[in-house]
Design goal:
Number of domains: 3
Radius of gyration: 23 Å
CATH superfamily of the largest domain: Tetratricopeptide repeat domain
Structural class: mainly alpha
Order of helices and strands: HHHHHHHHHHHHHHHHH
Number of helices: 17
Oligomer: single chain
Length: about 325
């Protein structure tokens, strides 16, 4: 029996097969489906014996039968959900310290997970996000290139990929909307629910970043204002919307409204437990309030505390920029 706290949820071949048996009734039923899908080239008894041997392989490569199982049945829904959680920037996975996130991704990057296409896809996206948080753009680009070969057919992953590539493009061309984002509006139409809200808010944020740098402040502000903002909208999306509006009001000199929006962004982030997002909202408070004021000093100190706790190099760099009074468009 695993010690308390040691069960990561990442399946071994035995756990994976147990799940298939629970779903289909017996190991023989799983074997029969495999035999039928492969034209009965192997008899059911032979396949059953092969699957029993596979059970003993733990997290070692699954070989021919592991590959056939994954192509036939895919990953369990619970495992797929965990992988998407790790690979999505708007999930609370980014609210864990970077070294811990790295350890968790490494733990899951083994068979059977790593031998499935969704596993390789979402683990690559997770590694790209970690590289961006660590200010390692070349490493992020390598992981995004891997994800690009695996993402077709999964709209959420394609959007996640496009947003990551856009972030890499931004420093070289801050006033131009990245070409990587061209297909995102159409892909968003294929999604619904909280993930769609969050992805749409992130897309608007990246488009607005370029617009703000180009001086199109009104257009960027209008994009944020058009985002949904209801009690049913995901708090991550509501926080990103409020943060964008805070910057727009700030650029227009409406400091009171800007501060209200920045405080609201911090509140929405806190409501959902998005610690990293809360730090970004606190940095907006620093930007729009009176330099050196008690509120600005307190907000910066709190954001820096979060950045240190998360061991997040990118967030720490933003805190340093805020301390020096150097702010670009959000």
């Amino acid at each position: 029996m695993a010690a308390r706290g040691q069960n990561s949820g990442q399946p071994t071949w035995a756990v994976y097969l147990d799940g298939l048996v629970a779903e289909h009734g017996s190991l023989a039923a799983v074997s029969e489906r495999l035999a039928a899908l492969h034209g009965w080239r192997d008899d059911v008894d032979s396949i059953t014996r092969a699957l029993r041997r596979l059970r003993t392989r733990g997290s070692l490569p699954g070989g021919k039968w592991g590959d056939r199982l994954l192509r036939t049945f895919g990953l369990p829904a619970s495992v797929d959900a965990r992988l998407r959680f790790m690979g999505s920037y708007h999930s609370r996975f980014v609210d864990l310290p970077v070294p811990l996130c790295t350890d968790l991704v490494q733990l899951w990057d083994r068979p059977p997970t790593s031998e499935s296409r969704p596993g390789r896809l979402w683990l690559s996206l997770a590694r790209a996000t970690l590289a961006l948080r660590a200010r390692q753009p070349d490493e992020a680009a390598t992981h995004l290139a891997t994800a690009r070969t695996l993402a077709p057919g999964d709209p959420a992953a394609q959007i996640e990929l496009a947003l990551g590539e856009s972030l890499l493009d931004s420093p070289a061309r801050p006033t131009a909307v990245s070409a990587a984002l061209a297909e995102v509006p159409e892909l968003l139409q294929a999604l619904g629910g909280p993930d769609a809200d969050c992805l749409r808010a992130r897309y608007v944020g990246q488009v607005s970043h370029a617009l703000n740098h180009a001086g199109a402040i009104d257009q960027a502000e209008a994009l944020h204002a058009a985002l949904p903002d209801t009690p049913g909208t995901h708090p991550f999306a509501r926080s990103r919307r409020a943060n964008g509006l805070a910057y727009g009001r700030f650029r227009h000199g409406d400091l009171a409204a800007a501060l209200d929006h920045a405080r609201l962004a911090a509140r929405h982030a806190g409501d959902a437990g998005h610690v990293r997002l809360r730090a970004m909202a606190l940095l907006m408070v620093v930007r729009v309030t009176t330099p050196g004021s008690p509120e600005a000093q307190d907000a910066l100190a709190r954001a820096r505390t979060i950045a240190h706790a998360l061991e997040d190099a990118t967030l720490l760099a933003r805190c340093d920029a805020a301390r020096r009074g150097r702010h670009g468009a959000p």
